[in-house]
Every structure is written in C-alpha cells, then in structure tokens.
C-alpha cells in the first residue's frame, strides 16, 4: 500500500536504511564531541582507534555533514554511552570516561541504501537530478525522538565526486518538483558517494 506523500512536510530524520541493513559495526566517539549524535546521523572515520571499557579497541568516528573523499562510514542505527548503556542520543560535549563520549552502531556497508529528506530551502531537486550527487547538511538532533535533523542540501547537487551522497531515485510515495523552486521536502533514496570502506587502497567514491 502506498504511504503518505511527505514532500510538503518538513520533518527531517537523518539517513535511515532503505531495505535491509547489509552490515553494521560499532565505532567510538571521542570525548567532548562537537555535535549531538542521534539515529540517522551520518558518520565519518576520524583516523583514530580507542580502547573502550566494554568493547575492546574500536575505530573512531564523528558526525559528518560534508563528503570528504573516502571518509564516510554510514548512518547511525543505535547510540550508547561509554559503558554500552543505550541512549536516545549522544549530547554534544559529552565527557564519557574522558577518552570516549560514547559508542555508535553504524550501517557501514558501501552498498547500503538510505532514505533522507531534502532541505528545499533555496531550491528543490527534480527528476533529472537522479544519478547526481549532493551534500548532507545539518548538525542537530531532535531531543524528543533522538533522530538526526540532517537533510540533503538540495542546492549542492552536482557531479562532484566528493559530495556526500548519490541520488538514486525519489521515494516512491513523494512528489518531486517539476521545477527547482524552493519549498519541496521530498524524500530520496541515496547511497554514499565516497565510502571509507569501499574497495581499493585509496578508498575513493563507490
């Protein structure tokens, strides 16, 4: 059954897996994280490993709203404190145990598809944007739901390989603008355009 058309409703939720979760792994968030992290937050590898109280040594990650080449891991599925107790979200500047603020479970397969809302603030996406790339914007979390407020930055669309996501297709329930005028919040199916765990030594776009 078709669901509701959400293209005129501005209700961001970050990046949520579309279809089955292919793979997920735990990552440590360093103490005093700059931004809040919730379910749906896009994460980037930080190049550091951390000894954790309950999970041994974990690779580090932090929230990402750009698309640095080869850095993107995937979106958060669950959030925990440094002792692996579940959290609704990880607040900004969390001390934790003074080494890590917390731990996140990330859907980190380069082949993972996600659904994410566009921001539609200065322009909106159109059907011809399928297979283009775009950045992700936003650094906040809804403290009631624990969901990320990240969205596609509609005006960033283009062919640049380092933009965060590739636009695969619109959500089947949503109406997409016929022109690129602002004010549309359509959901799109995307994949990471530049995945840290992609094939090849240089970790380039996949």
List keywords for this structure.
206 residues, 37% strand, six-stranded antiparallel beta sheet, 0% helix, mainly beta
Question: What would you say this structure looks like, in words?
Answer:
The structure is a single chain. With 206 residues, this protein is mainly β. It is 0% helix and 37% strand. It has strands at 16-17, 25-30, 42-52, 56-63, 72-81, 86-87, 100-107, 113-117, 133-137, 151-158, 165-170, 187-192. Strands 1-8-12-11-9-10 form a six-stranded antiparallel beta sheet, with no helix packed on it. Strands 2, 3, 4, 5, 6 and 7 form a six-stranded antiparallel beta sheet that branches. The model is unreliable at 200-206 (pLDDT under 50).
Blueprint (SSEs and pairs):
Elements: E1 16-17, E2 25-30, E3 42-52, E4 56-63, E5 72-81, E6 86-87, E7 100-107, E8 113-117, E9 133-137, E10 151-158, E11 165-170, E12 187-192
Antiparallel strand pairs: 1-8, 2-7, 3-4, 3-5, 5-6, 5-7, 8-12, 9-10, 9-11, 11-12
Summarize the structure in short:
By secondary structure, this protein is an all-beta fold. It has strands at 16-17, 25-30, 42-52, 56-63, 72-81, 86-87, 100-107, 113-117, 133-137, 151-158, 165-170, 187-192.
């Amino acid at each position: 059954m078709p669901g509701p058309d959400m293209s005129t409703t501005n209700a961001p939720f970050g990046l949520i897996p579309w279809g089955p979760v292919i793979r997920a792994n735990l990552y440590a968030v360093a103490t005093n994280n700059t931004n809040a992290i919730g379910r749906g937050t896009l994460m980037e590898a930080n190049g550091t490993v951390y000894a954790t109280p309950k999970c041994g040594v974990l690779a580090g990650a932090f929230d990402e709203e750009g698309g640095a080449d080869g850095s993107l891991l995937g979106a958060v599925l669950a959030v925990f404190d440094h002792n692996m107790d579940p959290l609704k979200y990880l607040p900004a500047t969390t001390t934790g145990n003074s080494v890590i603020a917390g731990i996140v479970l990330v859907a980190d397969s380069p082949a993972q598809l996600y659904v994410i809302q566009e921001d539609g603030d200065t322009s909106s996406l159109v059907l011809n944007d399928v297979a283009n790339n775009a950045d992700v914007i936003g650094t906040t979390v809804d403290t009631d739901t624990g969901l990320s407020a990240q969205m596609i930055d509609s005006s960033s669309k283009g062919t640049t390989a380092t933009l965060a996501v590739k636009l695969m297709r619109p959500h089947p329930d949503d109406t997409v603008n016929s022109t690129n005028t602002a004010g549309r919040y359509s959901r799109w199916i995307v994949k990471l355009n530049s995945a840290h765990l992609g094939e090849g030594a240089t970790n380039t776009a996949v």
